[in-house]
Write the structure tokens for this entry.
Amino acid sequence: MESFVDFLIQAGPTGMFIAAFLAGSIFPFSSEVVMIALLGAGASPLGLLLWGTVGNILGSVVNYSIGTLGKEEWITRYAKVSPDKLRRGKVYVRHYGAWAGLLAWIPLLGSLVTVAMGYLRTNPYLSFFTIGLGKYIRYQLIVSTWMMTMD
């Protein structure tokens, strides 16, 4: 895994996009490590913010799409979401609807929420807006914190 992370760091903004895509999807991955390493290497903070946000949103689109298949058996098998976690995610999304997407940035919970949003067919436009907003804010906080510590 370490060599893969090194590869992503060497790839620069493209590596940030790939890391963010993986982290936003059902794959367990931490894009923050790649972002911080790239910031430390002098990459453009704005570029990393952009590519990280776009990649992370697209990873969530994959999760949402898996959810729209509507087959709990497939969700538990391929997305590795236990039936109990899927049930809890559906309860949460039923309560908050597309606004649940604001929490899609949280590791593990985010994948569960986005799969449940697809399963329950929340409004895709509002869903992707809220998902994107939450993911943008998270990356903005990382970039801002990095920049403040470097001053």
